[in-house]
Amino acid sequence: MSAEFELRCPISPDLGYIRGLVRLHGRHHGLSGERLDDLVTAVNEAVTNVLDHGGRAGLVTARAHEQGVSVEVLDIGGRLTSEHLRAARVDPAGASGFGLWIIQHLCDQVTLEQTGLGSLLRLHYHTRPAPATPPNRRTTHKPERRHATP
Fold it and tell me: In angstroms, rounded to a whole number, what is the distance separating the alpha carbons of residues 130 and 78?
């Protein structure tokens, strides 16, 4: 018998605590190695964006599903838009602004929804990468290949 559980964690400046919970949840649901590290990094970037650019409060919710793990990052500020996702670029001269670009390159799918509670960013990870995924997806995928939908 398997007990299903969902991780729910309020966003706080204690990023180490949030990373630890997400790592435990991802590992428990079949992610390991680079896939697990990518999940933790993407969630860290999303939470950092909430703290630095959003409403500074929200909720991280992680759930397992047949294909892998999905993590929702709710920003009560509601400022994140699909245009932000589309415009995400790496500016080598900039000191910040890499978060959304990193998130879209590390996740199998990224979606965004504006809700009555704020901006809801969903990060999707498959337990195993899709067969068509090139071995070095970080350098071979372009942002356009990620699924950022409003």
Answer: 31
pLDDT digits (tens, 9 = 90+) for 30-43: 899 999 999 999 99
Please, which residues bridge with residue 61 across strands?
Answer: 8, 72
pLDDT digits (tens, 9 = 90+) for 95-126: 666 899 999 999 999 999 999 999 999 999 98
> 139-142 contacts: CB < 8 A, separation 24 or more?
141/105
Classified as helix, coil or strand, 73 is strand
Point out which residues pair with 66 in neighbouring strands: none
Return the ∠ at Cα 121 (arms to 118 and 125), rounded to 5°: 155
Q: Is the pTM of this model over 0.85?
A: no
All domains of the chain, ordered by start, with CATH?
A: 8-149 (3.30.565.10)
DSSP β-ladder status, 58-65 and 68-75: antiparallel
Question: HSE (CB half, 13 Å, CA atoms) of 33?
Answer: 4
**Strands 148-149 vs 109-115: parallel, antiparallel or unpaired:** parallel
